[in-house]
Amino acid sequence: MSQPTEPLDEQTAELLTDPGAREWFEKHLEEMRQNAYGQRFLYWTLAVTFVVGIVAYVVGYLFKSSAPDEPFALLADMLYTFGFALWTAVIIVVLLEIIPGVKRRQIRRALEAYEATRGQKAPAPSGGPAPLP
User: Fold this and answer.
1) pTM
2) How many domains does the chain have?
3) Please, which residues have CB within 8 angstroms of residue 66's CB and are 6 or more apart in sequence?
4) Is 22 a member of any domain?
C-alpha cells in the first residue's frame, strides 16, 4: 500500500508548471532517481565524514603535541578524539552496513534470476559429460 502524496507547496507547484524546468527534469530524470532512491548520498556522506575525521584527528594530534597550556590542551584533545571517533565510525558503518548490503543485493539478484528460470528446464552443460538421470 503506497503512502498518500503530500500536497505541493507554492514554490514546487510553480516549478512544475514552468516549461523550462519540466524540460530540465526530463533531461536529468535518471540521475535524479539515482540520487533519490540510490545510495549516492550515503556514500558521499561517509566519504566526507571519513576525510573530515582524518583531518581532525591529524590536526588534533599535531595541536596536542605542541600545545602545553591547559585550555589549548583540552581543545586539542577534544579535536583529536572527535576526529578519531568520526573516521572509526565510518569504518564501522562500512563493515556493518555497506558491505553486507552489497552482498544482500547480490544474493537477491541471484535468487530472482533463479526464480525466473525455475519453471524452465536447465540448459545442458556444454563440453562436459551428459548429466545423470
Assistant:
1) 0.62
2) 1
3) none
4) no
> Mapped to the 3 state alphabet, what secondary structure does 7-63 carry?
CCCHHHHHHHHCHHHHHHHHHHHHHHHHHHHCCHHHHHHHHHHHHHHHHHHHHHHHH
Cell 548520498 sits at which residue? 41
Residue 128 carries which side chain, given as an amino acid letter? G
For 113, the domain range is 42-118
* Lookup result for grid cell 527534469: 25
| pLDDT tens-place string over residues 60-82 | 999 988 867 888 888 999 999 99
Find where cell 548490503 sits: 101
DSSP class of residue 71?
H
**Residue holding cell 524540460?**
23
Q: Please report whether residue 30 resides in a domain.
A: no
